[in-house]
Amino acid sequence: MKLTFHKKDIALLTIILVLLIWVIRLNFSGGTRPSPPPASAPKSEVPLGILSSLDILDRLSTAPSPVETPPALDVQKAKDGLHTEYYRHGAPKFQAEVKDGNLHGVRKWFSESGNLLREDTFEHGVLQGISRIYQPEQLDKLWREESYRDGRQEGVTKVYSKEGKLQFEVLFQKGEPLERKIYGPDKKLQALQPIRGGRIHGLTKIFDPSGSLRAEVLYDRGTALEHKEYYPSGKLYSQCALREDKPHGEVRAYHETGEMMAKIHYEEGTIVDREVQSFYPKGERMAELTFDDKGQLVQRKTYFQDGKLRSEENFKEGRPEGLLKAYHPSGQIMSDLYFKNAVPTGMVRQFYETGELSGEVMVEDGKEVYRKSFYPDGPLKSEFQFKDGKLHGIARDYWKDGTIVSDIVYDQGVPTGVVRQLSETGVTMVEVQVDKGVVLSRKIYDPSGKLKSEEPLNHKIEPQHLGVKN
After folding, report:
1. Structural domain includes residue 112
2. Cβ(384)–Cβ(391) under 8 Å?
């Protein structure tokens, strides 16, 4: 079953929050910053994304078979032994063993290019054991593996992606599916679903990458009735009732310590509140959201615990539009970011709490073009160039007097060439030879510039290991 009702809210809130965090955490230094939310906290101060965990369930319906049913063989007229049918060009299309007028033994089906598409085992006309179905035109790449007993599925059926990674496991008993497991690209369990009568029935559990319970959805014969979401600690974050797979009624969100965070009302998936507030554990205002009559977000403000404004942003048709601002606890502007048609564009600036510019980023169509940071009294501290959103060209750090600290050459996000670190007097202290992201050698010099040591290396290095975040 496909649940898509929540995606507009989820995409909207995710864009806002990711970009706000991005602005706050640009690679600038200095200044007092608002304390980030704890790692265990959900992304939203208000449960707009109450059903975010259900995006996993959009992919739960079993993928269609990439191959058709094998061609039938008139076993009643067939003689005992191996029977083979051929394509026009002479390659085998179908092979089956027959005994006493029944399929008995291995049945195989091939593509025109000769790849094995399917193989089954029969005993006196009845499927037994393991059946394997392969990806078409991908040699020996398994798509589905089924287990049979007396002609009915029994045990675990496994379904794989085109890349060969396990996607689903379905437990069968006497031909009836009882349970389905869904796996992520990292091979970790994402969801566990009970099944009855071919429908999801009972408590579906959804897990985060660490294995902690992320959410639960209660189903009754294929209909979702209730949704709960949890902190990694296992404490309840939010809960809501569902009607026709859509949030309906009051949605509640809680702090990890159990205090009420926020309430928001839905009618069959549409937010009906015009204004929604959320609160800190002790009752202080944390966020304030305004909606139009269509349930679309118009304005969002967040606050520090002492009541001072922390951020503010506007929306058009539920999407970010115009200026987004974030503030220091003192009330001084910390950063600003402009949106056009929900895409960040133009100059992004960040300021020290004293008001001086601490950094700036030029953004075009949502991608960085260049990035600079500054010392509190104005001198340039670092500068980076980007191409297609990736570090490209020379990235430099400076001492306060303008002397170069280090420079790194990037090619589409990959460091390459000679990386140097210099002293305040301009003497090379460290020199690293990099080729396509692989460190080949390193030289270390004394304060006078004389070579002190040299060593060959051969290991891959990430941009942040060179002091730069891509």
Report:
1. no
2. yes
3-state secondary structure of 221: coil
What is the model's pTM? 0.66
Query: Which residue range is the domain that position 409 belongs to?
Result: 404-470
pLDDT digits (tens, 9 = 90+) for 340-392: 988 889 999 999 999 999 999 999 988 899 999 999 999 999 999 999 888 99
Are 222 and 200 in contact by the 8 Å Cβ rule? The answer is: yes
Any domain includes 261? no
Task: Work out the mean pLDDT of the chain and round it to a whole number.
Answer: 81
CA dist., res. 50 & res. 372, Å (int): 37
Distances (CA, A) of 458 to 231, 421, 442, 467, 468: 42, 20, 10, 19, 20
Q: DSSP letter string over 344-370?
A: EEEEEEEE-TTS-EEEEEEEETTEEEE
Q: Give the integer Cα–Cα distance in Å for 143 and 171.
A: 17
Phi, psi of 465, rounded to the nearest 5 degrees: -70, -15
Kindly state whether residue 466 falls inside one of the protein's structural domains.
yes
8, exposed or middle or buried, with CB in 10 Å at 0-12, 13-18, 19+? middle
Give the separation between CA 186 and CA 161, rounded to whole angstroms. Answer: 12
CA-based max dimension of the chain: 95
Instruction: Count how many Cα atoms sit within 13 Å of the Cα of residue 106 in the half-sphere of its side chain.
Output: 8
Q: How far is CA 20 from CA 291, 299, 365, 372, 394, in A?
A: 20, 14, 17, 18, 27
DSSP 8-class letter at 11: H
In whole angstroms, what is the distance from residue 454 CA to residue 359 CA? 36
Give the mean pLDDT of 12-27.
30
Q: Which residue has the tokens 């960085």?
A: 368
Phi and psi of 19, rounded to 5°?
-70, -35
Q: How many domains does the chain have?
A: 1
Q: Are 182 and 168 in contact, with CB atoms under 8 Å apart?
A: yes
Specify if 286 maps to a domain. no
Which residue carries 């706050």 as its tokens?
A: 24
CB-based contacts of 227: which residues, under 8 Å, 6+ apart? 50, 51, 53, 54, 215, 216, 217, 218, 238, 239, 240, 242, 247
